[in-house]
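From the methods appendix. Each design record in this collection lists the discretized structure first, followed by the designed amino acid sequence. Records were kept in a plain field format so they could be parsed without special tools. The example shown here is representative of the layout used throughout.

RECORD:
C-ALPHA CELLS (393 positions):
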C-alpha cells in the first residue's frame, strides 16, 4: 500500500512537470544569463554554501500520542523541553570527472565538525544543542549516479516527567534506567537529560532528469537514545501461584536498523531563474533488519525476514530557489519524521527491574534472569525554516 501511494505521488508530480515544461518562460526571454542546466550547482566543479535556519526538535511519548485521539491515555508520559534551535550550516561539494565528493555540517554553535565524541555518552553540560556532519560521495555511471552518504548527528536536551498514568488515572513517578548507574525515579515535574546520538550510512541509485530525479537505496542506522519501554511479566510459582504484571519505563537503548528507501526531487519552473523545489523520501524497515540492545536485557538477534519490528521515516523539503550560472539563493521549509516500534526476541533481564503494575496498582520488582516480554517505541519530529546561499563555478 505504501509503495502504491509513493508511485501515485511520483506520477502526479511528473504530470505537473510536463504541463509546466509546455508553458515555461525561459531565462532567454528576459535580460538574464541563460542557464545551461536548471541546476548548475549540482554540476559545478566547486560549490560552497552557507545556511541559517530556525528549527524545532520534539520527542513524543506513545501514550501522549494516543492521548490526542482518546484523551489522557495510560502509560509513560513526558514533555520534551527542546528549545527552538538556530542552526548554522555550511559545506562544500565538488565534481571531478565522474566522481562527486562533499561535506555538509550544521550546529547551533560555530564550532568545528566532529565525527564522534570521546565517550559514548553525550555530556549534558555541553552547550551545543544540535550538530550534524554529513559526508557525501558519488560515482556517475552513464545516465545514473550511485551516491553514498555518511551522517553523524547529536541532539541534546531535557525532558520533564508527567509521571506514569495507569488505567484508573493514578499517576506515579516514572522510572528511568540510564545507560550507567542506578535507576532514577522521576516524579511529575522532574527533569532528566535527553538526547539522540545517531549514525547513518546509505547507498542509493539516482536516476536524474531535467526537472525530476528519482532514487532508491538502502541505509543502515545506529542510534543511542532513551526510549519508551513496555514490560510484561508472567510467572508460575509452585505450587499454584501465578504472577503477572505490566508497566512502562524509560530506558537507554542502542538501536540498529536496516531500511530500504525511495524518493524523488523535482524542480518546477515558476519564472526566470526561479524554481519550486520539492523533495520527498520515505524509508521503511527491512524484515529482520531491526535489533536493539540495552543494559536492562539481552535478546536473540532477529532472524532473516522477521516481522517483529516497524520503522518508518521521512525527511523532505519544499523551497523557492533563485539560480544563476554561478550563484543561487534558497528559502524554504524541511522536516524529519521518525517512528520505530520493536519487540526484542526472547528477552531475559540482565538486572533487577521495577515498574508500576497497571493491574495491581503496585510497584512490581522482577529479578535478573527472568524472561519478560518487551516492546520499545520512539516517535521523533524535526522541522524548521531556512535560508541558504551558494556560490559555484
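DESIGN:
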Amino acid at each position: 500500500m505504501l509503495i502504491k501511494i509513493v508511485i501515485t505521488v511520483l506520477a502526479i508530480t511528473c504530470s505537473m512537470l510536463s504541463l509546466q515544461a509546455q508553458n515555461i518562460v525561459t531565462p532567454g526571454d528576459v535580460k538574464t544569463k541563460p542557464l545551461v542546466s536548471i541546476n548548475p550547482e549540482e554540476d559545478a566543479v566547486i560549490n560552497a554554501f552557507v545556511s541559517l535556519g530556525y528549527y524545532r526538535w520534539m520527542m513524543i511519548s506513545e501514550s501522549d500520542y494516543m492521548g490526542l485521539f482518546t484523551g489522557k491515555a495510560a502509560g509513560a508520559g513526558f514533555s520534551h523541553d527542546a528549545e527552538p534551535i538556530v542552526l548554522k550550516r555550511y559545506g562544500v561539494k565538488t565534481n571531478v570527472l565522474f566522481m562527486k565528493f562533499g561535506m555538509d555540517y550544521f550546529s547551533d554553535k560555530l564550532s568545528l565538525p566532529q565525527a564522534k565524541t570521546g565517550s559514548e555518552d553525550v555530556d549534558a553540560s555541553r552547550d551545543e544543542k544540535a550538530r550534524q556532519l554529513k559526508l557525501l560521495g558519488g560515482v556517475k555511471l552513464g545516465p545514473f549516479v550511485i551516491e553514498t552518504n555518511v551522517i553523524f548527528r547529536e541532539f541534546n536536551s531535557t525532558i520533564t516527567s508527567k509521571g506514569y498514568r495507569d488505567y484508573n488515572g493514578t499517576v506515579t513517578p516514572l522510572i528511568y534506567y540510564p545507560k550507567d548507574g542506578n535507576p532514577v525515579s522521576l516524579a511529575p515535574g522532574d527533569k532528566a537529560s535527553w538526547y539522540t546520538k545517531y549514525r547513518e550510512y546509505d547507498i542509493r541509485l539516482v536516476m536524474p532528469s531535467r526537472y525530476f530525479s528519482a532514487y532508491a537505496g538502502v541505509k543502515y542506522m545506529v542510534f543511542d537514545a532513551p526510549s519508551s519501554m513496555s514490560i510484561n511479566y508472567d510467572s508460575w510459582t509452585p505450587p499454584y501461584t501465578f504472577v503477572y504484571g505490566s508497566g512502562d519505563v524509560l530506558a537507554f537503548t542502542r538501536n540498529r536498523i536496516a531500511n530500504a528507501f525511495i524518493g524523488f526531487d523535482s524542480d518546477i519552473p515558476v519564472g526566470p531563474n526561479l524554481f519550486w523545489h520539492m523533495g520527498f523520501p520515505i524509508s521503511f524497515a527491512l524484515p529482520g533488519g531491526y535489533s536493539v540492545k540495552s543494559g536492562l536485557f539481552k535478546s536473540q538477534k532477529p532472524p532473516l525476514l522477521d516481522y517483529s519490528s516497524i520503522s518508518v521515516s521521512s525527511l523532505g523539503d519544499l523551497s523557492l530557489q533563485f539560480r544563476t550560472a554561478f550563484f543561487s539563493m534558497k528559502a524554504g521549509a524541511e522536516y524529519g519524521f521518525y517512528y520505530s516500534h520493536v519487540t526484542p526476541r526472547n528477552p531475559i533481564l540482565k538486572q533487577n527491574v521495577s515498574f508500576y503494575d497497571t493491574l495491581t496498582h503496585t510497584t512490581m520488582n522482577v529479578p535478573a534472569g527472568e524472561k519478560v516480554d518487551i516492546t520499545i517505541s520512539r516517535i521523533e519530529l524535526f522541522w524548521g525554516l531556512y535560508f541558504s546561499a551558494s556560490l559555484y563555478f
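APPENDIX NOTE: The chain is about 10% helix and 65% strand.
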